[in-house]
């Protein structure tokens, strides 16, 4: 699915070095490493937002769910259907799925509310549904649990388990029980050079 070889990313005076790895289909891979180790950097490389050196092979479509999701000044429902609109897909065919996922994450009652007025955790749930609704091959979740309460983390865990046979998840998270519950494979990052 995603294969990296001799991958390096330069970031001002730092150079991140990533060990060779294959991210496998339908496995939940958890990316671990300390603050500043380059986890978000790696996800942004996968999402084609950053330049890199070395080899990166991706034979699938990838969606990046940021730590701080970009939310539009529209209803939660409008935010969720945005990727369907962009792809000119028939939104009515996805309505039941949206309701199903919104129920699972307990935001069904908020779908007609302005998404900018939602709490951080609710915004994250909207953003997560928006990133899975069009059935991408790979979803990159960057610290999805930060603003979620315990119950919401359990609901997100159930959603990911439900979808993992169809969608490959690559997740950055420091929440131990969330990670332990979901992780099939772990990939550690932390190699870096300080450039002079
Ligand atoms: N656009 C940028 N310009 C300069 N430095 C950056 C930029 N983005 C990230 N960094 C730095 O690169 C390091 C790795 O960042 P990041 O990948 O976000 O770490 P994390 O593993 O915590 O997700 C951090 O020290 C961060 O400050
Ligand atoms: Mg990060």
Description:
The strands form 2 sheets. Strands 1, 2, 3, 5 and 10 form a 5-stranded antiparallel beta sheet that branches. Strands 6-7-8-4-9 form a 5-stranded parallel beta sheet, sandwiched between helices. It has 196 residues and is α/β, with parallel strands linked by helices. Helix content is 32%, strand content 26%. It has one domain: P-loop containing nucleotide triphosphate hydrolases (Rossmann fold, 3-Layer(aba) Sandwich), CATH 3.40.50. β7, α5 (150-163) and β8 (168-172) form a beta-alpha-beta unit. α2 runs parallel beside α4 (120-132). The site of adenosine-5'-diphosphate has 11 residues, from α1. Adenosine-5'-diphosphate (ADP) binds at residues 11-12, 14, 33, 35-41.
């Amino acid at each position: 699915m995603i294969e990296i070889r001799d991958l390096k990313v330069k970031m001002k005076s730092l150079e991140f070095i990533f060990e060779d790895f294959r991210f496998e289909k339908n496995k939940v891979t958890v990316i671990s490493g300390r603050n500043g180790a380059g986890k978000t950097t790696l996800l942004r490389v996968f999402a084609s937002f950053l330049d890199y050196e070395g080899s990166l092979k991706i034979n699938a479509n990838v969606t990046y769910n940021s730590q701080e999701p970009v939310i539009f000044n529209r209803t939660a429902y409008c935010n969720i259907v945005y990727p369907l609109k962009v792809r000119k897909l028939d939104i009515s065919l996805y309505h039941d799925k949206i309701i199903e996922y919104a129920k699972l994450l307990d935001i069904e009652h908020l779908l007609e509310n302005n998404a900018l007025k939602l709490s951080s955790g609710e915004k994250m749930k909207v953003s997560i549904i928006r990133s899975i609704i069009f059935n991408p091959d790979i979803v990159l979740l960057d610290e999805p649990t930060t603003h979620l309460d315990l119950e919401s983390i359990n609901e997100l865990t159930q959603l990911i388990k439900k979808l993992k046979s169809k969608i490959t998840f690559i997740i950055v998270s420091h929440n131990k029980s969330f990670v332990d519950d979901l992780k099939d494979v772990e990939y550690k990052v932390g190699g870096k050079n300080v450039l002079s």
